[in-house]
Amino acid sequence: GYIDKGFVKFFVAFLNAIIEDPELFGKAGKLLLYIAEQLDYNRLTVYLSAHKVCEDLGISKATYYLWLNTLLKKGYLTKIATNLYQLKPYTVIKGSMDKVEDVDTDF
């Protein structure tokens, strides 16, 4: 059957926080979106390899660590172990395309 890979639901308050925060909007927010794609939704955890993230996002390691530390400082991520982080609850959940199949997608 169809797999809803990449379809997630973001809480509005979380999106507003990203948009209104100059450290997140267009910056560390990109790392948050990346995390949303990689997230284990049962535990809200993600394993982050600096090398892979930098390669995937086309950023330097300095930028990666700046963004990561911003997310940690602001409480969006908690470090669980080396390279293992937990996303703050009520930010994002796994979605389902079942309820949006009939939506007109001709933009």
Write down the Rg. 15 Å
Helix content: 40-55%
Tally of helical segments:
4
Element order: H for helix, E for strand: EHHEHHEEE
Please sum up the structure shown.
This protein is 42% helix and 17% strand.
Kindly list the characteristics that best describe this protein.
single chain; about 110 residues; alpha+beta; 3-stranded antiparallel sheet; two-stranded antiparallel ribbon; 4 helices; about 15% strand; globular
Topology:
Layout: E1 8-10, H1 12-20, H2 24-38, E2 45-47, H3 50-57, H4 61-73, E3 77-81, E4 84-87, E5 92-94
Antiparallel strand pairs: 1-5, 2-4, 3-4
Structural notes for this entry:
By secondary structure, the chain is an alpha+beta fold. It contains four helices and five strands, in the order βααβααβββ. It has helices at residues 12-20, 24-38, 50-57, 61-73, and strands at residues 8-10, 45-47, 77-81, 84-87, 92-94. The strands form two sheets. It has a three-stranded antiparallel β-sheet. It is globular and about 30 Å long. The relative contact order is 0.21.
